[in-house]
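[Target chain]
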Amino acid sequence: MGEKNYEPLYFLPDEYLRVMGRKAQRNNIAAAKLVAEAVRTTLGPKGMDKMIVDSSNNVIVTNDGAEILSHLSLEHPVARMIADISKNQERSVGDGTTTAAVLAGELLSHAERLLDMNIHPSVIIKGYRMALRKAKDILKTLSTETEPDDDMLKRIAETAMTGKGAEQAKDILADICVKAVKAISREKKIDPSDVMIRSIKGGSVEDSELVQGIVLEKEKVNTSMPQELKKAKVLLLDAPLEVRETEISANIQINNPEQMHKFIDMEDSMIREMIDKIEEMDVDVVFCQKGIDNLAAHYLAKKGIFALRRVKRSEMQKLAKMSKGRIISTLEEASSDDLGHIDELREDRLSEESYVFVESKTSNVVSLIARGSTVEAMDEVKRALDDAVGDLTTFMRGRRIVAGAGACEVALLTQIARYSEELTGKEQLAVRAFSEALEIIPKTLAENAGLDPIDILASLKVEHNEGHEHKGIDVFDGSIIDAFDKGIVEPFQVKLEAVVSATELAIMILRIDDVITAQPTKAQEKQEEK
């Protein structure tokens, strides 16, 4: 029998793009390295800022890794994956976003060198997993359990703020962040969202303050309402204070003025009944998630009741938490037992905007007011406060800290390098590559400070090989310091999350050997044009 000639089989249409094997891996690694390089110069106290101009010509100036990546229009899927780990890092532990992105890029860069040596991706992945397990154990031994006293909390907050645009006022900002976190930590579970950060343009960074309660960017629904109240009872209403519309379409035919008057009187009577019900409960303040009719606002003002309408659901939930009140869905079922209590309410006008301050001395929800002379300065203060609060709440949950200033990474890479020497087989090379990738953090800290990274890293390795695990770099004068003694500390969970996220992303990307991009077919394009 003769040989059979088979026609080539294509299982994808011509409009699909497909990149396979080594080329796919190279492209993915190149995309990750480019993103990491884009944010690398922002790392550390001497990191530079990035100016981002969006499609609407809005300008953002920041050195926050997650913020930068969230505003970039990233096309490559791997680039978007790195942006996602930065977001997840910020969401889960509040800081370490740039570290995670830079480390992920460096892990892939070192993996690329191993791939060029014809080492299979599976071997590299196995070695990286072994190194990650070891890194977790080492980080645990490097961490120190400590009590959350004011001095320690302030150190953590100041470390988080160092290098931000608001650094000149970090002493004041750290103080208010510590007070804020202590206020919400009265309960066992700490929720960082209980610290609400509100930006108000105008004034200087030093004018930023802590409010023991909630600040709402709202104005009262009627100018005749009180400007300020003390020891007030609060009704939280998730129902409109207006005449209800019928669920079915209906037309009302009015033939003479008398019928018109009756119709208006009926609406007026319905509104009066609602306001009378509120007055019977001895309510001082109404926060309404829905609308408030102008007539209802008039009657509330006549009775000396303060009211806000269209309050956001998230803000209603915070108001309920701080005032110990219940959010009511229908006014008919409301009672005095559902009311919340606050110590003080006032309306202020700041920078041509109205704000309502709702305060209580025992509130477990607080607000930080970020002030700045320009929008860019104000936004940087807000980001600095956000990072500090994130670090503090993360620390309060675990009560463990590690040395900053690059000390933790040098201790990790030193001990993982020793661990690699105990191994045999090709995995040893991957574990060694993992330890070398960690060098990127102290190197970048030195580079961004204008120091010689090779000399700094060599000096740090000597110190750590001699057992000085807390030795880091003082980026301000280039000296080698004890990070703990200098008060440069970070929450253990922030470091752990950054290393874990970066390694898991690197492993995920190394597992990809085929990239299929679906392009629209000509028929689909014609359909879209129609």
In short: The CA atoms of residues 201 and 372 lie 6 Å apart. The chain is about 50% helix and 15% strand. The radius of gyration is 30 Å.
